[in-house]
Hints:
The chain is an alpha+beta fold. It has three domains: 5-115, Acyl-CoA dehydrogenase/oxidase, N-terminal domain (Butyryl-Coa Dehydrogenase, subunit A, domain 1), CATH 1.10.540.10; 120-230, Butyryl-CoA Dehydrogenase, subunit A, domain 2; 234-385, Up-down Bundle (Butyryl-CoA Dehydrogenase, subunit A, domain 3). 51% of the residues lie in helices and 14% in strands. The chain contains eleven helices and nine strands. A hairpin with a 2-residue loop joins strand 2 (139-143) and strand 3 (146-157). Helix 8 runs antiparallel to helix 9 (314-338) and helix 9 packs antiparallel against helix 11 (367-385). The radius of gyration is 21 Å and the shape is globular. The two termini are 40 Å apart. Coenzyme a persulfide is lined by residues 92, 122, 124-125, 131-134, 178-179, 233-234, 237-238, 240-241, 314, 363-365, 369, 372-373.
Amino acid sequence: MALDPDTRDHLISTIRRFVDERLIPAEAVVAQTDAIPxxxxxxxxxxxxxxxxxxxxxxxLGLNMEEEALLILELGRAxxxxxxxxxxxxxxxxxGIAIDGTADQKAxxxxxxxxxxxIGAFALTEPDAGSDAGSVRTTARxxxxxxxxNGTKRFITNAPHAGLFTVMARTDPAQPGPRGVSAFAVxxxxxxxxxxxxxxxxxQQGAHVCDVILExxxxxxxxxxxxxxxxxxxxxxxxxxxxxxxxAAACTGLAERIIDDMMAYAVTRRQFGKxxxxxxxxxxxFADSRAEAYAARCMVLDAARRRDAGQDVGVEASxxxxxxxxxxxxxxxxxxxxxxxxxxxxxYRAEQLxxxxxxxxxxxxxxxxxxxxxxxxxxxxxxxxx
Length: 386
Ligand code: COS
């Protein structure tokens, strides 16, 4: 749905105020306590953040990709742990059902995901299936009107809080690759499903990730997303195409925020009798950061508009995710450098944002996976042109 421009601009400025007045001031306490305060979670629900991408038919805001990207550019300015709270509901935790689910599955789960009453998680990765997503070993064996799931899922964002998991499992053991995989909607609390201990991470404190263990977990056959076996890998790829644009917007928003921090420091910090912003070697870092963040913003919005126009943007999403996640890493590193010794000290936040940004180059497909997707499509195109 495309909002009218006034409503869209109002929404963007409301979110910007929320980020500046509520989220950024809470960053230090979230990093210290590894938890998002309950009043902020309530405020996120009240603002409709959990349902940005979900259709109004199910209680969401039904934003198109460009609108979602514009809001994530704003929300991305706060420490990434905040976005993680509602990010799975907007993206990977809801979109399997939103894109490929049956009418009953949508009616059953999307309203709770849109309101934030249910937290959604996406359970694809396994101990031995990371980048090679088609090699999942978790099995789903049909048993009358049920499937029985067995396996372990790893690094599942929001798993400790999730009410619903989109689980990729192999329904056809005779098909070792992507074609044997199906997607299931599995509710927390189902006997046989348990979660592991939250991992101690390098950054993004306040966002939680852990294993999901499935031991003879019996689920009804109608939990098969879309009702057709063997489609789970494609569902996962469609979810990730959209998710990668979302992550690219989050990276770009964070880079823009870090640039603001960097400049605020550089114009006030004085050395050799003048603000360090006046030194040319630092000016090169500022200019490179600004140009690269601008390029990422253009890529994200262009790819989002193409997706809204119905184009297949798998390659563009990978380009945007790769460029924006690498870019925010460079910007976060330069910010530490501009802060000098203070950049290594907790209270200045440069070091925290540096650690937080590192994850973007890894999750929802590493840079190397994005390069593989882009290059493979280029070769296919070249072969087709011969
Ligand atoms: N949309 C729809 N369908 C897609 C698709 C997409 N973006 N990408 C692939 N497919 C389809 C293919 O068309 C193919 O269909 P057919 O079987 O009908 O031919 C099928 O899915 C298998 O695709 P492919 O052969 O490309 O699979 P690969 O095993 O080569 O895997 C990559 C491709 C590497 C791209 C995939 O494994 C991947 O994205 N890995 C990274 C996973 C990831 O991001 N993990 C992060 C954790 S999840 S938060």
